Amino acid sequence: MDSTLLKGIDVSHFQGRIDWPKVAQQGIAFAYAKASEGSGVTDAMFGANYQGMRAAGIARGAYHFLHADVDAGQQARHFLSVLGAPEAGDLPPMLDVETACGMPCAAIDSCALEWLTEVQKALGCTPLIYSSLSFWNSNLAGCAALCAYPLWIAEYTTAAAPVVPHGVSGYTIWQHAQTGTLDGIAGAVDLDLFNGSAEALAQLGRPAA
To answer: pTM for the whole thing?
Structure first.
C-alpha cells in the first residue's frame, strides 16, 4: 500500500460525535459524511460532521446511500435538499451503490445513472460512484455509462492497490479498511486513500464563485 497517498475517512451517524480537529491532526486530508438514504432518510449527524470537517480544515464531501427500488429522482432531490448550497472547496458528492434491494441489474443501473445525472446537472460537477468489487462486477459492470464516472472502490486487502472492476480503467478513491481507528472517533471507521496528489484533490473541489 502506497504510504504517500492522501488519507481520508467516510463517516455516518454510526461514529457518533467526532472530534474533527483531533482527526485532522492525524493527517486526514479529506472526509465524506453520509447525508441521506433513499427518498426520506437524513443522517442524524450530517450537519455536525459536514460543518466540523470544514472548520477543521479537512476537504469535505457528502454521500447518498442508494435504494434501487425507490424513485431515483426523489432520492436525488432529497440528497440535494439535505446538502444545501455547496461552498468553495467542497468535494463532489458520492453515490453509495452496494445493495440490490431485490432489483435486477438493469433497474439498479438505471436508478444509479438517473441519480448521478440529476445531481451532476444540479451541482455542475461530476459525482463519484462507490461500490465493492464484487457488487460492481455482479450488478453494474454491464452499464458503460456508469463505468465513465470516477470510481470509489471498496476492497479490503493488504495489496499495494485494489483490483478495479470490469469495464473500469482506474479508481479515484480506495476504501481499504472498514475497521480503522483514529483518536477523536469512538469505535471503527472506514479508511480511504485518494489516488492522486494534493493538487489533484484540490482540483476536484468546487471553485470559488
So the answer is: 0.96
pLDDT tens figures, 155-199: 998 889 999 999 998 999 999 999 999 999 999 999 999 999 999
C-alpha cell at 110: 438505471
3-state secondary structure of 32: strand
How big is the CA angle at 132 (ends 71 and 116), to the nearest 5 degrees? 35
Which one, of 36, 45, 41, lies nearest residue 189 by Cα? Answer: 45
Strand partners, 10: 32, 190
How does pLDDT run across 74-114, given as a tens digit for each residue? 999 999 999 999 999 999 999 999 999 999 999 999 999 99
| Cell digits of residue 21 | 480537529
Catalytic residue among 19, 71, 98, 114: 98
Instruction: Look at residues 133, 62, 57, 142 and name the one whose alpha carbon lies nearest to residue 108.
Output: 142
Q: Is 10 known to be catalytic?
A: yes
Three-class DSSP labels, 40-75: CEECCCHHHHHHHHHHCCCEEEEEEECCCCCCHHHH
Q: Which residue type sits at 197?
A: S
- Which triple of cell numbers denotes residue 9? 475517512
Q: Can you tell me the mean pLDDT for 118-141?
A: 95
* Catalytic (active site) residue 98: yes
Determine which one of 2, 10, 109, 114 is catalytic: 10
